[in-house]
Amino acid sequence: MNLTVANSNTNSSKPYLHWRPRSGHSKRSHPTRYMKYLRTPIDGESVHVYRNLHKRCWSVRAKGNVIAHVPAIQLLGCTCHVSEAARQTVIATKCRSVHAYVKGTITHSPIPDTADSSIITMVYLPYVSGKFFDPVTKVPIKSAERMVFSEAGKVYCHGFIS
Q1: How many other CB atoms are found less than 10 A from the CB of residue 92?
Q2: How far apart are CA 148 and CA 112, in angstroms?
């Protein structure tokens, strides 16, 4: 690794360190650049799941790090979490950020039929309410026995507690 002192701004008296790759090395091998290594979520692992608005998929976070981006996932023993302070910032700045997620345990069991009458759809709209809720009845949802996060971006709850 070669570090050279460069001073591109003549008005500044402080030089800065500029990293230059050795010959034959690409710029992608920067020594301090952090690279995320995604992995397959493990059955029974406790995770946080939220909607990734840029990639249009579900992001799975374990122990504070994003471990996967998946089109669909199913969780057991789910609880809904919303940071009210971050929600107020979203409302004030009208700039969306990750401040709401569902915590649960991953399961790879067969997905139940969504036509069942005990399964409801769940949404989260930060400008409408600070809670996850059923869009039809407007009943808030705190937790559920099982949640299915579909490829279409919808969340289906089975055995929910309001």
Answers
A1: 8
A2: 9
Contact 100, 89 (CB under 8 A): no
Find where tokens 């992001």 sit: 59
Domain hosting 123: range is: 46-161
In a domain, residue 117? The reply is: yes
Count of alpha carbons within 13 Å of 113, Cβ hemisphere only?
Answer: 3
Instruction: Give the position of tokens 């089975």.
Output: 158
Q: How does pLDDT run along the chain (162 residues), one tens digit per residue?
A: 444 444 444 454 444 444 445 555 554 544 444 445 688 888 999 999 999 989 999 999 999 999 999 999 999 999 999 999 999 999 999 998 999 999 999 998 877 666 666 789 999 999 999 999 999 999 999 999 999 999 999 999 988 887
Domain assignment present for 14: no
Helix (H, G, I), strand (E, B) or coil at 55: coil
The DSSP secondary-structure symbol of 41 reads P
What is the number of domains present in the chain? Answer: 1
| Bridge partners, residue 18, by sequence | 4
Which residues touch 94 (CB under 8 Å, ≥6 apart)? none
Give a yes or no: residue 154 inside a domain: yes
- The 8-class DSSP code of residue 127 comes to T
- Asked, for residue 38, whether it belongs to a domain, the answer is no
